[in-house]
Each structure stands twice: as C-alpha cells, then as structure tokens.
TrEMBL record:
Record InterPro entries: FPG_cat, FPG_N, H2TH_FPG, Ribosomal_uS13-like_H2TH, Znf_DNA_glyclase/AP_lyase, Znf_FPG/IleRS
Protein's UniProt name: Fpg/Nei family DNA glycosylase
UniProt cross-references to CDD domains, sorted A to Z: BaFpgNei_N_1
Domain FPG-type: 238-272
Similarity comment: Belongs to the FPG family.
Location of the Formamidopyrimidine-DNA glycosylase catalytic domain: 2-105
Cofactor needs: Zn(2+)
MF terms in GO: 8-oxo-7,8-dihydroguanine DNA N-glycosylase activity; damaged DNA binding; DNA-(apurinic or apyrimidinic site) endonuclease activity; lyase activity; zinc ion binding
Keywords noted in UniProt: DNA damage, DNA repair, DNA-binding, Glycosidase, Hydrolase, Lyase, Metal-binding, Multifunctional enzyme, Zinc, Zinc-finger
SUPFAM superfamilies per record: Glucocorticoid receptor-like (DNA-binding domain), N-terminal domain of MutM-like DNA repair proteins, S13-like H2TH domain
Pfam families in the record: Fapy_DNA_glyco, H2TH, zf-FPG_IleRS
Organism encoding this protein: Streptomyces alkaliterrae
C-alpha cells in the first residue's frame, strides 16, 4: 500500500505535469472506483488544475474554480503516467480502474488496481473535507507542529498496541503497515506494547524513530518517477517484507506474525528481548 512517503512523491511528480493543464477527459473504468456522484466527473472537463495536495494517503487534484479530484490508492492501487494516447479502455478488462487525459497532448494518468479486492477510491467533491477518510485524519507526522508533546498526547491513555495506534489514520495521518514496522524496529520496541504503558523516554524514542524513518523515506523517494517508487520503497525496508532475512542491525533472523488480512515483521533481538511473538493466525488483533 502506498503510504505517506510514496504519496508525497506522487504529489510532487504530478504537480508540474498537471498544474495549469486542462482536463480533456476523465473516465471511471471499474464500476466500483467512483464513490461520489455530485458534482459529476464531467464537471472537471475543460477546467485547469490549480494545485496538487496530499492529505495523509490521499491525493487531491484541485481544479480552478471547480471540484477536487481526490484519489486513495488503497492496498493494491497505483498511478501510471501516460505521455501518449492509449487505446480505449474496456470495462472489466485488466487492472485499469480510472483514466484521465489532459488537453493539447499533455499526457495523463491511469489508476490501476491489482488483485480481486477492489478498494481503490476516486471522489469528485467541492471540498476535500467532504471525503470521510480525510475528515477523520489525525495530524501530519512531519508537520512542524507535530512535536514531542503532541505525539505524547496522542498516545496518552490509549490501551491499544502501539503497532495499531501508529496505523490508525484518525490518530496519525499517512502511516501504514510497512512504515509502522520500520518505525518500531528503529525505536527498538515490540509492536505488542500498549501505547498507554510507554515511559516518557520510550515515547521520545518512538517519536524520533517516527520522524526519522518518514523523513528519510520521503528524501529517498523525492524526484523519482511514479514507476520507480515501489522498488525504492521495498529497497529501503530493514524488516518489513524481509521475513527470514538477517536483521541489518544485529544479524538475528527477521520474523513474522500473520493476521487475518496482513502481517508484521520484526527483529526479536532488537525489539522483543530475543523472544518470538505469538503468531495468532487469523487474529484481528491489529487494525
């Protein structure tokens, strides 16, 4: 799933390509992709894009004096830029879910989604705050205002495992399964710790790991083309997606805990005092 660093890189990639350009056509190819009906998508046609913004894991393409095209790529969605005109899209054929073309041969992009679970979402709204997922977002973790006291306040009193708290978009915007694994490994902390039980020194260590991990990932992704971001994300991971490989810090074997619809990776030596975590398969313990 694209998370804050990849979505921010996509925003930066799209901005010079679409801002000031006029929408020639826009079409949902997959039946399930469009989540709104008023205003209609056709309201974008003939308008120029004024800005490209990011809200957590959401991309927001704002038209001049018009609606916002908001995209959430979900778990298996991606954006592919197309400089040249593509053949007409056929509904139900392949991974293509959505297509937008710009006028005067300026290119455009496709939204694709792999797999059978179709969760990629497109919204056309007057205000991005009308998108439920944006309306409930917590603070941006790389914003200047997101200081240690703010972070400590978000954790205070939460009797939930810290892995789930980091992934909860209503608590902190933009962090998903992959970067929560990386943050916890960097903080040398078990994903099963309860957020409310962390001592002040542990909260500070987790805060520094969060800011450092995300800032470095954003820096690595900066300037990359959309097609290069997935490989960069995988290559930058220390434990996530590396089950069975040696931990780059201590050399212990990276282990995995599987859940109903996801899994986490961790290093026992670095994070759990050398003890493997119980693998409760089919559990819904973590969100």
């Amino acid at each position: 799933m694209p998370e804050l660093p990849e979505v921010e890189a996509l925003r930066a990639y799209l901005e010079p390509r679409v801002v000031g350009r006029t929408v020639a056509s826009v079409r949902p190819v997959a039946v399930s992709v469009l989540k709104t009906f008023d205003p209609p998508l056709e309201a974008l046609v003939g308008r120029r894009f004024a800005a490209v913004r990011r809200w957590g894991k959401f991309l927001d393409l704002a038209a001049e004096d018009g609606p916002h095209l908001v995209v959430h790529l979900a778990r298996a969605g991606w954006l592919r830029w197309r400089d040249e005109e593509q053949p007409p899209a056929r509904p139900g054929r392949g991974p293509l879910a959505f297509r937008l073309r710009l006028a005067d041969g300026a290119g455009g992009f496709d939204l694709t989604e792999a797999g059978t679970q179709k969760r990629l979402a497109v919204y056309c709204v007057p205000d991005p705050g009308q998108v439920p997922g944006i309306a409930r977002l917590g603070p941006e973790p790389l914003a200047d205002a997101f200081d240690l006291d703010t972070f400590a306040g978000l954790l205070r009193g939460r009797r939930h495992r810290v892995k789930g708290v980091l992934r909860d978009q209503s608590v902190i915007a933009g962090i998903g399964n992959a970067y929560s694994d990386e943050i916890l490994h960097r903080a040398r902390m078990s994903p099963y710790r309860l957020a409310a039980d962390l001592a002040p020194g542990e909260v500070e260590r987790l805060y520094e790991a969060l800011r450092g991990t995300l800032a470095e990932a954003v820096s690595r992704a900066s300037g990359l083309a959309a097609g290069e971001l997935k490989a960069e994300k995988r290559g930058g991971m220390r434990v996530h997606g590396r089950t069975g490989e040696p931990c780059p810090v201590c050399g212990d074997t990276v282990r995995e805990v599987s859940f109903a619809d996801s899994s986490l990776q961790y290093c026992p030596t670095c994070q759990t005092g050398g003890k493997p975590l119980a693998d409760r398969r089919m559990s819904r313990l973590l969100k």
